[in-house]
Amino acid sequence: SYWERRVRSSARTRARAGHTVLVTGASGFVGTHVSLGLKRRGDGVVGLDNFNDYYDVELKLARQTLLGRAGVFVVEGDINDRELLEKLFNMVAFTHVMHLAAQAGVRYAMKNPASYVHSNIAGFVNLLEVCKSANPQPAIVWASSSSVYGLNSKVPFSEKDRTDQPASLYAATKKAGEEIAHTYNHIYGLSITGLRFFTVYGPWGRPDMAYYFFTQHILQRKQIEIFEGPQHSSVARDFTYIDDVVEGCLAALDTAKKSTGSGGTKKGSAQLRIYNLGNTSPVPVTKLVSILEKLLKVKAKKKLLPMPRNGDVKFTHANISLAQRELGYKPTTDLETGLKKFVKWYLNYHSGLKKYSS
Ligand code: NAD
Ligand code: UGA
Question: What distance in Å separates the CA atoms of residue 66 and residue 69, rounded to the nearest whole number?
Answer without folding.
Answer: 5
